[in-house]
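We emphasize that the prediction below concerns an isolated chain of 100 residues; any contacts that depend on oligomerization or on bound cofactors are therefore not represented. The input was used exactly as deposited, without trimming of termini.
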Amino acid sequence: MTENGVVNKLVGSVVTANAGRDKGRYFVAVAVGGGFVYIADGKERRLEKPKRKNAKHISPAGARVDLEGLTNRKLRRLIREFSTQTDYRQTQSLLDGEVF
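Result of the prediction step, given as a token string:
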């Protein structure tokens, strides 16, 4: 599969920023164009003005979002819920097998 095909499949995916000042934060890929992915979080980067990010600097986080009817408020809530679930799972995996 070509790199462009992989990038096109990112639209609607929850992604993590791997580089830049927003490194480590969750976003949703809302559009693709010219080798860039446009990402939004509903707060600092709203759906009306998504951030242009190089496709090399993001990675899929393993969840998809239906973009139809999506508002900034719904987007913030979805990312917050995803973030807390992911953080909880990571914490639990770190604590598994430890004796206190």
